[in-house]
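[AMINO ACID CHAIN]
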Amino acid sequence: MEAYLGIVGGFFTLLGIWIGWKLTHNKKSETTGSENSIQYPGNSGEYDPQNEFNLSPREHEVLVLIAQGLSYQEIADQLFVSLSTIKTHTANIFSKLDVQRRTQAVMVAQKRGLLPPVKV
């Protein structure tokens, strides 16, 4: 009986690992471009905001939400993180962009092509 349970347990363990791998594995053959680079109009080729300002993907995401006019609390709620985490990301963004305010950060980001085009 113990051997049977061990075999069944091993089977389901391997099945779980296989399913998890299938769900999380990036299929590069299905993607058409690089996942980490973003292409915006007005820029030549692909633009990776991490290159010029060394922004992390999460900081870039926070910057985009700031540009949409969301408050810190709304950003925290949308990204499922604490308000303190958003304030830390924002302080890092301000430091990397060399600005003091949210509006300045948005202006610099727009000039440098860090933000997606505005949908009207």
About this structure: Residues 28-47 have pLDDT under 50 and may be disordered. Helices lie at 2-24, 49-53, 57-67, 72-79, 83-97, 102-112.
